[in-house]
Amino acid sequence: MKLLLVFPIIIPLITAAALFLAWRWRQVQRGLGVCGMAVLLGMDLKLLESVYNKGIQAVQIGSWPAPYGITLVVDLFSAIMVVLAGLMGLAVALYSLVTMDAQRESFGYYPLLQILLMGVNGAFLTGDIFNLYVWFEVMLMASFVLLALGGTKPQMEGAIKYVTLNLMSSALFLAAVGILYGMVGTLNMADLSRKLSNVGEPGLVMTLAMMFLVAFGIKSAVFPLFFWLPASYHTPPVAISAIFAGLLTKVGVYALIRVFTLLFVQNVAYTHTLILVIAGFTMVTGVLGAMAQMEFRRILSFHIISQIGYMVMGLGLFTPLALAGSVFYIIHHIIVKTNLFLMSGVVFRLCGSFELKKLGGVYRSHPLAAVLFLIPALSLAGLPPLSGFFAKLILVKAGLETERYFIVIVALGVSLLTLFSMVKIWTEAFWKSRPLSDRDSELQMSWRSNNSIGSLLFPVTILAVLTVAIGLAAGPVFNLSIRAAGQLLDSGDYIQAVLGERP
Amino acid sequence: MEVILAFVTGGLYAAGLYLMMRRSIVKLIIGLALLSHAANLLIFTAGGLTRAKAPLIPEGVLEPETPFADPLPQALILTAIVISFGVLAFAVVLVNRAYHTVGTDDLDEMKATDT
Q1: Distance (Å, whole) CA A495 – CA A189
Q2: How far, in Å, CA of A304 to CA of A322, rounded?
Q3: What is the per-residue pLDDT for A202?
């Protein structure tokens, strides 16, 4: 059903409008926020099922025929991303029911979360490159406000850096879209895919490809454009950190994959080798940065960067298996990263700090929470039978098949260093005993008095169970990924769905 | 004409980026504004310049008389102006709030969250 494609954008919009109308009633906002997320997730799953059974689908907004109007296209990759966005939205909404302070809730936290999801879904579903810019801006605007909401000093400093670098990236994206239109005469991505190979100026096309690489590279936090991420992601409340970590950089990676599999495939030897080199540097600098940190969320922020390197590595290798590895990695990483950030909030609830030196003893007092941290942590490092192992296995195998041995060595080495980081957090925060200090007596009292983390652990448990499930049922997930990769590499189906004729 | 506009766009980009690298947060905002103006002018120039031929269809005819100015880059620029207007309004308030919270307008001092 064609209307199904519009639902992931319309549902958060209607929910956000309803939440704005209920501005004064915080309890209504809380209930409606979670219900809206649940409805969104349901529609997203129906969309995925529809694409799985019927292939790529497209709908022309306002019935203006493509390529003159704006198209919403969904292929398997987009559908998977939309489902993951809905899932993370629901998990974070459930988590923030317990943790979000009343002040932030009264000043529009729930409607902002819905608008963020609307922008994210719009970016995943659009088939028009300028519309992609618009949805990026919607998502960015909501993220600016969410980052600054509350007005604490670290939030303000982080927000200035985040806003500046992302606005620069938007200006570069806009300029690239302008030049692309001037050169080719169309903005529809399917039409661009047909026409870009016939443009008589390959040098200019390559320049545009580099501009898009930098613009989306800033958004996906690759080397050397990632420095806004560790400066800002650890400043807002944990629920907001978690949704940012899970979604925002992955929208950048989605845009990179879409643009470099659909549009700029004329000179693969140059562009994708460059992307591979960038991926290698990203992996290494991310994990080295994480090793130098001693604060829970800063370590996790650097790990986001390092794992983005893996996803971009799959794009750089540019074979069906490699892209399937990228898709699998994105699925695995969104769930694991959000889960890790939520767990950092649980530890904060229990011990009162994010500094590793001040934490300790969580395993002794709350063993279930410790295990729920261990599952995503080991999955991130890549231990079987969790999802991270299979994701890295597919990428390594793709690298070996294309005889890019150096990047495989880098990927495996970084994996070892990731394990070191996770074990460091485990030892410092969970395994060792609580360090003694002057104000210890009152802190110990509040620590022992059963801080209600039970309801917090509910979304964490769901995500941990998903991580284990993806690991144990890696076969079906891999089949889904390889089908998505096939659709990405062969743009004939995409162009036919949008324009109605084969290229 | 394109050459002159190209130089103007380049000058705006240069001024915007230079201002963004200054120490004061107010100059940062002005630099961001100039950057978005430069991007808009770039879309305008890249879309093709046509002198004095608006894309309007006269009475009783089915098509405008060629050559006419391309309306699509104008729509892109309009959208971009509106988006950057909203974002810059937010950025100005953010900078004001940051000044009051952090206590300084010197960007070199705001490094507590950096690694």
Answers
A1: 9
A2: 20
A3: 87
**What are the residues facing B106 on neighbouring strands?**
B24
Provide φ and ψ at A59, rounded to 5°.
Answer: -135, 135
Task: Identify residue A292 by its one-letter amino acid code.
Answer: A
In this prediction, residues A445-467 reach a mean pLDDT of 76
Beta-carbon separation of B110 and A163 below 8 A: no
Average pLDDT of span A66-80: 91
SS3 A295: strand
Give the gap in angstroms from C-alpha A115 to the nearest C-alpha of chain B: 15
- Nearest-CA distance A210 → chain B (Å): 17
Q: A440 pLDDT exceeds 80?
A: no
Contact call for B20 and A164, based on CB within 8 A: yes
ipTM score assigned to the predicted complex: 0.94
Residue A157 and residue B102: Cβ atoms within 8 Å? Answer: yes
Residues of A in contact with B43 (CB under 8 A): 174-175, 177-178, 181-182
At A466 the three-state DSSP class reads helix
Residue type, position A362, single letter: V
Question: A272 — phi, psi (to 5°)?
Answer: -80, -25
Smallest Cβ distance to A289: which of B44, B48, B115?
A: B115
Residues of B in contact with A231 (CB under 8 A): 113-115
- Spell out which residues of chain A touch residue B98, defining contact as CB-CB under 8 Å: 156-157, 159-160
Cα(A350)–Cα(A371) distance, rounded to whole angstroms? 15
A119, A135 Cβ separation under 8 angstroms: yes
Rounded Cα gap, residues A83 and A44, in angstroms: 5
Q: For the residues B53-63, what does the mean pLDDT come to?
A: 83
Burial class, A485, CB count within 10 angstroms (exposed 0-12 / middle 13-18 / buried 19+): buried
Amino acid at A421: S
Residue A371 CA, distance from chain mean position: 24
Q: Do A167 and B73 touch (CB under 8 A)?
A: no
- Mapping DSSP to helix (H, G, I), strand (E, B) and coil, where does residue A318 land? coil
Q: Please tell me the distance from the alpha carbon of residue A100 to that of residue A113, in angstroms, as a whole number.
A: 12
| Pairs of residues, one from chain A and one from chain B, whose beta carbons lie less than 8 Å apart | 115
For chain A, report the end-to-end CA distance as a whole number of angstroms: 25
Write out residues 65-94 of B within 8 Å (CB-CB) of A: 72-73, 76, 79-80, 83, 86-87, 90-91, 94
**CA-to-CA distance for A170 and A157, rounded, in angstroms?**
20
Contact A168 B90 (CB under 8 A): no
Give contacts of A179 with chain B, Cβ < 8 Å: 42, 46
Q: Residues A133, A177: contact at Cβ < 8 Å?
A: yes
